[in-house]
Amino acid sequence: MQDLLTSALNPRSVAIIGASENIHKIGGRPIYYMQRHGFQGAIYPVNPARDEIQGHKSYASMAALPEVPDLALVVVGGDKTVAAVEECAELGVKSAVVIASGFGETGPEGMELQRHMVAKARAKGMRLYGPNTQGLANFGTGAIAGFSTMFIEVPPMDGPVGIVSQSGGMSAMTYGLLRGRGLGVRHVHATGNEADVSVGELALAVAHDPDVRLLLLYLESIANPEMLAAAAAHARERDLPIIAIKAGRSAQGQKAASSHTGSLANEDRTVDAFFRHHGIWRVRDPHEQARAAQAYLKGWRPEGRRLVVISNSGASCVMGADAADDEGLPLAELSKETQAAVASKLPGFATATNPIDITAALLSNSGLFGDVLPAVAQDPAADLFFINIPVAGAGYDVQAFARDAAAFEAATGKPVAVAAWQESVAEPFRAQGIATFPNEGEALGVLAQVANHTALLRKERTVWPTLPQVQLPAGARGFLNEADSLALLARHGIPTAPLRLCRSGQEARDAFDVVGAPAVVKACSAEVPHKSEHGLVALGVSTREQAADLYERFDAKMQSMGVARDGVILAATRKGRHEFMVGARVDPVFGPVVVVGDGGKNVEALKDCAVLLPPFSTADVVQALGTLRIAPLLAGVRGDPPLDVQALAEIAVAVGQVIAGARGTMASVDLNPVMVGAAGEGAVVVDALVECAGVPSSGS
What we know:
Rossmann fold; 20% strand; five-stranded parallel β-sheet; 29 strands
């Protein structure tokens, strides 16, 4: 990590291969930027056609340099790019930034050329940034190995924000939006195709910069989740919030991402789960990142999410309450003492309950905000403050409003956000450092984001001290049959419906005597994972002769289908209040992933489910269930009792431990339906399907 920091972000010397005298060409910009922004190291232009470039001696080749530079910026294109990378690697350059495009993002041939280039670099221990990148920029050291026009359009200022992005355009846009809000930015790095160094690895390096207090990411794929998880873990340790954009949420977006950077798309719900698991907050675009930046940099870490709304308009109080509800922010229930204290500061016709309407009396008494805020501040129910000003101007002492709000925020540390659409009103609040927005939606969106993100970062991390030793049947390939699938789950403590596997009509009769009526009869074949589609499931079987007849029919049907005949299952009927599903799979990028949600035959059509990444707790599962469309049913409706979500959560945790404990030998497991009873009645798995992995993993 130290090598990554020193050779790329704080190099002692930089070579520019393809350097230019013209500062508006890609080869000229880095030299211009480094000279302008205080780079203290050596700058070596490499261009055989010139003796001097921008006041620096120019060299005909890398071999002609007086020393081996820490960092090389490769600006030449075509075949010269690969040759330059190979030369840098042979000389012992530690890091190289490759600007040129035409590699992995173009298709198989470009990808092969990219792999060749990376192999040459790795063989000599050189790290590669790009290709297809705008480069790196560290305004703390002046090391700017990039060419973004935005650094001319919006003058840089060193500050506490780091930006790491796959896209050069998005890194520049985010930088511009932050600078437009008056915020300083230290790191602006683009990884491009990520042939070697990924966003995750570069984010980990930036997270080690002690002066960075907010880290913003843009990703089109997550090719190295372990490194991104490590960055998130280090960021949590030092209270460094990470806000990320993961583009390619839709099928069309994923296709565009592939053509843009040569990335492979990640399943979006799994990405959401990964971010939540590691305390990374996900937003949709750079505008949302920039909008919330000031709030994070103010150090807001609210204890809760309860909101106080204050306005000089009753209508704005109502709209503020509506917007708070949209964001899931509950209005604080102020104590009687607080209400009395507020009422003593307001005219008799004002409203002292929350939302607090201080009315148009603000025009004649400019101290009302300053009086009301401290009166509410001591109430333990007040976590967040929102001031909504729909109208002010001539006759209003807006400067006093802003000073009082700033003094209150400084004295209490409580988050304060202001909505003011009039620029003459907003500007004094901004001048006082108050987070100010043009409308209540944006203001409350930021308050909600910071409060929710803080809670996510404070959430206790779940640890699974041990995992079960999961053994699949010897020689198993493809799917296990249902009997073997259920038996495997039962061995690891997952409740399953009692069953018997029969291999004759007489065994079916005997099994019925044990299982009892009504029974379920199902064909059992590893080659028929979806039995109901072939008419191989019968419910409500009431006699032993009916069971024997079904055995003969199902056995004959499997024979006619030409599939393995593993027998016929007789299972006890188990009913519940609702059918759920629990599934798990080994994602090629993220590893074991667990899905829990609404079950039954419509599960694939409705897709009402939540995704969790191990390790997780039963409380995590219950919280995830609360995000489903069917969540209102969990507590019981129209006289129905609440469901036993705790029992369902225990099954989900056990499934996660089983697939993790299989250590790569299990590809997926599907439990559907899981019959869940009323609270205290438990849950039971009545059908399961385990899929074996093609090649067992040697990892732990």
